[in-house]
């Protein structure tokens, strides 16, 4: 598969700090990469380099087959960028914002107006088309911002924290929009602080911290890295010792008893393990009040990785 | 060119949505014309000339100075909101954006200048020279105004803070003319201020205008042409260089 984004050894120093210290990324065409990291990890810097806004100090970056330093114009003709702040003109209406971009991109007056109308329709903004953007809600602004990137359909789209500051309903709406775009075949690099967002949208996730990619893989792979599935059982507190003894056989590590009769254990096998564990508890005469299989969330992955970095 | 026109159109739409901008640009010059002209016309003598006429060049230059603020604020706002980043990520000419900004604001300055000319004429200003020198005088004002817009781009791109921009540019409009020959001939200024006013490049621009309009009291030699021309050229070159560079490489 061809790579839509290829980054090797990217470095960028600001006056007093190293923002990127050797970032490597590869995003196959038509897929979604979630770039996940805390504030100041280097997410935005990476995006700015890839969008030709910032020159890297070292390393190479190719977007849609073109080097961002050597052929920035070629790259610009093939990307769309929605930065952290919705970069739409407050004083203009939604329609005017899009028409302006169409004109800038040489669609001509009529072409620009037609494209603007299509985009407003697609993003559910037709009703607000002729209102100044400063009257828009945060979610509407974001949608207009993303629509602004699509005036000419890009090959690669960068969304820098697209849902930061949105309420949950707008966030889910925006996710749907993004999925729609991805179905249309665009390659997407999405930065986010929200693990759930990466889990929802991304094919692969790269965790970035301190200007370095510290882990990458599919969301499932990352979760597996942190540890397999855990069985969580709640029993009557007085039954805890019996239950622990009954479960010990199926656990990969000794089971741990928590408060109020909660027991958590890492299963040795998978499906078989669950069934046998349930049977063993019943035959030991334990009253089970809750029995659940819990897969680690990306939050666990994230905290685990960041924690390991801090202690290592 | 299409790109510049599109950006100009954007700026004009912005300006139309905020009519306060025109007021902001025309207010100071009109206040100078009306208040100073009316209050002091009998008390201030400018060496034979009519004070109202003398004042007109000062007001015209104030229009130019007043143009610095709106441009600076618009540029700084674009930088802050990420609008510049969006434009910079497009396959368009990097000069188009600041060029569009200044072109839009330039039309605003021209409009403001028109208003000042009308009010000035009503108050008694008129040129004592022929058509050609009069137009030359206006050409000087117009060029001055355009250069000031680029100074605005410069301020906007190096100063991030909107509040400090608006106070610095207010200072330019309101205070700077007092340290020049805008409202009073240099010779009548206190000794402390006189050297500043003499060397103030906007003095040279106004002397030039007054000379071309025949509103000047003192006859002038060739120096204001040189000083005014050189100053404007240097300002334009510096602002262009820094402004465009900033737009092209902003981190």
From TrEMBL, chain A:
Residues 5-235 form the ABC transporter domain. It is a peripheral membrane protein. Gene3D superfamilies: P-loop containing nucleotide triphosphate hydrolases. GO terms for molecular function: ATP binding; ATP hydrolysis activity. It comes from the Bacteria. InterPro entries: AAA+_ATPase, ABC_transporter-like_ATP-bd, ABC_transporter-like_CS, ABC_transporter_ATP-binding, DrrA, DrrA1/2-like_C, P-loop_NTPase. Belongs to the ABC transporter superfamily. Drug exporter-1 (DrugE1) (TC 3.A.1.105) family. This is ABC-2 type transport system ATP-binding protein.
Automatic annotation (TrEMBL), chain B:
One of its GO terms (molecular function) is ABC-type transporter activity. Residues 20-250 form the ABC transmembrane type-2 domain. GO terms for biological process: response to antibiotic. It is a multi-pass membrane protein. GO terms for cellular component: ATP-binding cassette (ABC) transporter complex. InterPro entries: ABC2_TM, ABC2_TM_bact-type, ABC_2_transport, Nod_factor_ABC_transporter. Its main location: membrane. Belongs to the ABC-2 integral membrane protein family. This is Transport permease protein. It comes from Lentzea albidocapillata subsp. violacea.
